[in-house]
Write a structure and sequence with these properties.
50% of the residues lie in helices and 10% in strands. Strands 1-2-3-5-4 form a five-stranded mixed barrel. It starts with 9 loop residues before the first helix and ends in a 27-residue tail after the last strand. The N terminus and C terminus are likely disordered.
Length: 445
């Protein structure tokens, strides 16, 4: 997903914040107006007429030329507040976003000469130009990012002081204020992320989501900031990315791919296919709740290694299911285990060299002897001698754990081979060997 402002979204359009259109396009805090001549104006009639000629020009390029001529002739004019407004509006219409920002900053540098309404309108224009100009490298330098961050903070301060204009309903005012707040906080979050100030970015994105909880793009951006923070807020990040996917934001497929790569890096499981199952569970959960459940747990690589080392709980946790079972399955799926001791309960030939054993595994020989149904399916591959295995034999096999079913409990092993020490010797004359009752030595798993 592009982390740009290609999201001049319906939210902002609904608030009619786009600049470069007619002055009546939105109920702005301060509309640009041509200055009225006062009894004792601070400018000459010729100066006023020159400005008016530039202000009324509809062609942006021609307007800029007339404004350049005006500034060259009247560099200290009292009309500069209006001139700079015309400049940034014209440059925005031409999609020249760096120049838009330059003239907004010139206007804001006039300080108290610019009233609150005109200041807020300029700060909105600056934020929009920054967002629209993300492809321009000149707006991505540390200096430009720092200025954009400071300008967003100043915009939020101005917004807090903005009073409802006359003839604006409470609902209209609330909608505009919300939309402008989302924009300033979005700019703040993006600049903070690019400056690697991830904790500040997280706060800014959360401020956006406080205003619009269903903003999929901001959920994505917050998730990225969480994952890039030091130390990473991994579970928070996975949740925010899942929330973005659940809300079907733009670039949903790319967000899913990014989430998968981050999750696999975090867990380092042997069975990568389980990552897709985890993501589906997370997205389903995120689609049903706007807030991350306090009990949500995503085991890390360290958690999985501890589970692998906990051999005593290998079967109990898998049989238990729940979070324990999930963790143990993530930890063990795809791993090869040596000398797993089992009792053979059924033999299913498939071809001359391959067959399947239904077996039972327990902690003791007595428990294995008492079993009436298998709890493992073992696929023996390319081991003709293993045909000597008989029902009720106790054998050890080495295989790769590849399947898990919690109810009824069943583990599946692939590419398995029987320990040759546990096979009865081939009988002379082709006679059937006797069943073996003694259990082999206790294996490591």
């Amino acid at each position: 997903m592009k982390q740009t402002s290609q999201r001049m979204s319906a939210l902002w359009l609904a608030a009619a914040l786009l600049i470069g259109v007619s002055a009546a396009a939105w109920a702005a805090p301060q509309q640009q107006q041509a200055p009225a001549q006062a009894a004792k104006p601070a400018y000459t009639l010729a100066e006023y007429n020159a400005y008016t000629s530039a202000h009324m020009e509809q062609n942006p390029q021609q307007k800029i030329k007339l404004l350049d001529d005006f500034v060259m002739k009247y560099p200290m004019s009292a009309l500069l507040t209006y001139v700079y407004q015309d400049y940034y509006l014209a440059y925005y219409a031409l999609k020249n976003y760096p120049q838009t920002i330059e003239y907004v900053d010139k206007l804001l540098a006039l300080g108290d000469k610019v009233d609150l309404g005109a200041r807020l309108q300029a700060q909105v224009a600056r934020a929009q130009a920054f967002l629209a100009g993300q492809a321009d490298k000149s707006l991505q330098t540390p200096e430009a990012l720092g200025k954009a961050k400071d300008a967003a903070a100043a915009g939020l301060t101005t917004l807090a002081a903005w009073m409802k204009p006359e003839k604006t309903t409470d609902e209209q005012f609330a909608t505009q204020k919300k939309s402008i707040g989302i924009m300033f906080n979005t700019v703040a979050g993006m600049t903070e992320s690019q400056l690697k100030d991830y904790k500040s970015a997280e706060a800014s994105y959360k401020a956006v989501l406080a205003l619009d909880p269903n903003d999929a793009v901001t959920h994505f951006r917050l998730g990225v900031a969480d994952l890039q923070d030091m130390p990473p807020k991994s579970v928070d990040g996975f949740w925010e990315l899942s929330r973005s996917i659940a809300l079907k934001g733009p670039g949903e497929a790319q967000v899913r791919t990014y989430l998968r790569s981050q999750l696999l890096h975090y867990q380092q499981p042997a069975c990568e296919k389980l990552g897709d199952d985890e993501i589906n569970e997370l997205v389903t959960l995120a689609g049903s709740s706007g807030d991350r459940p306090a009990t949500l747990a995503v085991p890390s690589a360290d958690d999985l290694q501890k589970a692998r080392d906990d051999t005593e709980n290998f079967l109990p946790w898998l049989q238990e299911g729940g979070d324990h079972g999930k963790t143990m399955w993530l930890a063990t799926c795809g791993l090869e285990y040596p000398d797993v001791a089992v009792r053979v309960m059924d033999i299913m030939p498939t071809d001359s060299d391959n067959f399947t054993l239904h077996v039972f595994r327990a902690a003791t020989q007595e428990a294995m002897q008492a079993a009436t149904a298998p709890n493992m399916e073992v696929h023996i591959v390319m081991q003709p001698d293993a045909k000597r295995v008989m029902k009720d034999d106790f054998v050890r096999f080495t295989g790769t754990l590849n399947g898990y079913q919690q109810t009824p409990f069943m583990l599946t092993w692939d590419n398995a081979k029987i320990n040759m020490e546990d096979l009865a010797p081939a009988p002379a004359g082709g006679k059937k060997p006797p069943a073996r009752g003694a259990a082999p030595k206790k294996p490591t798993q």
